[in-house]
Design a protein that fits this description.
This protein is mainly beta. The protein has one domain (2-95). The protein is 13% helix and 42% strand. The chain is built from 3 helices and 9 strands; from the N terminus they run αββαβββββββα. The protein has helices spanning 2-5, 25-28, 86-90; strands at residues 14-18, 21-23, 29-34, 39-44, 48-52, 56-62, 67-70, 75-76, 81-85. It has a 5-stranded antiparallel sheet with strand order 2-1-5-6-9. The chain is globular and about 35 Å long.
Length: 102
């Protein structure tokens, strides 16, 4: 999420695919910075497949027109951004509420 918010997908070795074809991230992922609130709004045009470091496969899909990423990489609404593959398995903590007092 931080790589999306900071427009660092390539530097962080993420490749974006629309179906089985590699795609330009800026065409399918639009970001809108709000510096006063320290958040980034994201518009994800459709379900995208993600390859990280050439070996970790994932998918991301948004059920809302725009979602928010905060400075820590947390996204909201948490239940409207769906992950599959590697990212879904790694981010199990995301199913907890952000205000959960563990």
């Amino acid at each position: 999420m931080r790589a999306i918010a900071n427009k660092r997908l390539r530097q962080e070795k993420f490749k974006i695919f629309k179906g089985k074809y590699q795609a330009e991230p800026s065409i399918h992922i639009k970001t809108f910075k709000n510096d006063s609130l320290n958040i980034t709004e994201v518009n994800l045009s459709q379900k995208l497949n993600i390859l990280w470091k050439g070996r970790r496969q994932s998918a991301i899909e948004s059920e809302v027109d725009r979602f928010i990423i905060d400075a820590y990489g947390n996204h909201s609404p948490i239940d409207k951004v769906l992950f599959g593959g590697f990212m879904a398995n790694q981010r199990i903590g995301d199913v907890l509420p952000l205000d959960c007092g563990l």
